[in-house]
Each structure stands twice: as structure tokens, then as C-alpha cells.
Amino acid sequence: GLHRCVAMTLGNLTESDARTYVCGSPEPSSGAAAAAEAGAARWLGLLPALDPLPGFTLPEHVWPMLYNVCGGNLGALRCVASAAVVAYTVRAGATDECWDEALLAERARAAAVVDRGFRPNTLPARGGHRAAWEPRQWVATLQAIAGADRHAVPVPELRALLGAGNIEAGAAALESLLRFNMVGYRQRSVLASDLPPEVYGRAGTTPVITARDAAVLECILGNQWAEQAMDVAIQTVEDEINSLEAGRQGWRLPELRRTLERLRKEKRQALLLRSQGQL
């Protein structure tokens, strides 16, 4: 029956397989091996399948950027390549600029995903559920993914981090992040080879949280959200100060005010460096 069915994740292609998918299989070698290869159908590649105008190619220097943005995801590779082909058709030339335009659009989409995580209260409900994480929990998630081995965080670890000691609160925040497709969820699968077995724990049964996709991971690792994280840290301390001023734990206020001043100073320095083109 259906209760015996097991869903397995296919994962993404390795870099070499992804390149073959986009550019096609290599030409058959000469000699004895050629006869064996001739019997197998040769994949010509995604680009010829998209039927671009003559002259459209994938320049060698573009491939690392394409793989960084799309990873081995078939849909993302097809989407970006299709956008580049359309741009080339419109411009009838300028291959590099067409790839740049397509990559820029994918990076903009990823940046918008990261930005939405800082504004959970503005997101429309999904399935009758409102976004249930806080901006500080989003910052913690981004930091955890950026620093994790292979950028895959064990679910129990992230749940504890988001709850700050309250497992139920952490579980609710993580469930909401998954419901709103803000992060990826992976279980070990014999069909997937893009993540090594060790990320799933000693027994290989611990699920992990990853970036939603390769473009989002690139955005996370690029630390483009640093200023927003500073704003969240400042707001968190300000809220705690306001709460203590209304309560009876005034002895903590001097320390928190020093922390707040340090955070504000760090933000001013970051803005200055950005204005000078150093960030």
C-alpha cells in the first residue's frame, strides 16, 4: 500500500554532470572506445535544445558564475540559460552581456528571498498560517547555514538555536520557515550525491537544513544582508532595554546600553566603508 512508499530526494547534479547537461557530452574518442561510445546516444546539451541564434555560446569564464548561481539544479540551469538565449535573440549579439543579464536577474530573485526573511510580518498567510519566525531568528538561520559544514545544518541543532533553549519555540519557527519555503530540507537519499553522507550524522538519519537554492546560498555567503542583521541586533537590544526600563531589572541596563552603543558604532563604520566602496 501507499504507507510503504518512501520518498527519496534526487538532489542536484555534480558540477561535471551539470556542465555536461548544459554543454553536452564530449565528442566520442578515437580508437577502440569510440565503437562502444557510438552505440550510446550522445547528449548534445541544453544550449542546442534551446535553439539559440547562431553565435550564441557559453563562454568559459561564465561557467563558474553559472554554476555558482544555479548549482546542479536542472530547473535553475534551464531558466538562466533560457533567459540568456532570449536576451541574445533580442540583441542579436553581445553574448557576455546576455549571460550577465540572466545571472543578474537570478541573483536579484535570491536577494529578494533573503530580504523577505527580515520582514515576516509583511508576508501573506500560507494555508491559513502567518509567518511565525522573528527577524533575529532569520539572522541566526543565515549565520548557521553560512558556517555549517557543506552549509547543511542538522535540524535538531538549528531548532535549538532558534528556540534559544525553548525547543517548542524553535520548532515552531523552523516549521514556519519551511512552510514559507525560506530554507531547504534534506534527508539522506541514495539517489542524491551532492551532499556527503557525513552531514546527516553518524547514523545517517538526521535531516539537515540548507539554503533554499544555490543563488540564495551565494547571497548568504556574500554577506549582502550584514546591514539588515545589524539593524536587527540594534532593535533587539533596544526592545530589551525598553522592557527592562518598564520592569525591575534595571541593574542590566548599563551593560545593554554599552552593547547598543557598540552596535550603533559598528553600523556607522560599516556604512562609512560602504560609502567609500570598501564593502
Number of strands: 3
- How would you sum up the global shape? globular
Strand order of the largest sheet: 1-3-2
Q: Tell me the count of domains.
A: 3
Brief overview, please?
By secondary structure, the chain is mostly helical.
Q: Could you explain how this protein is built, in words?
A:
- The chain is mainly α.
- It folds into 3 domains: 10-115, no CATH class; 133-221, Winged helix-like DNA-binding domain superfamily/Winged helix DNA-binding domain (Arc Repressor Mutant, subunit A); 226-275.
- 56% of the residues lie in helices and 4% in strands.
- The chain has helices at residues 15-23, 32-38, 46-49, 63-70, 74-91, 95-117, 135-147, 155-163, 167-179, 214-221, 226-245, 253-275, and strands at 153-154, 183-186, 208-211.
- It has a 3-stranded antiparallel sheet.
- α8 (155-163) crosses α9.
- The longest helix is centred in the middle third of the chain and has 23 residues, at 95-117.
- The termini are far apart.
- The model has no long low-confidence stretch (mean pLDDT 88).
- InterPro entries: Archaeal_ATPase_domain.
Index terms:
single chain, 279 residues, mainly alpha, Arc Repressor Mutant, subunit A, 3 domains, three-stranded antiparallel sheet, 12 helices, Archaeal_ATPase_domain
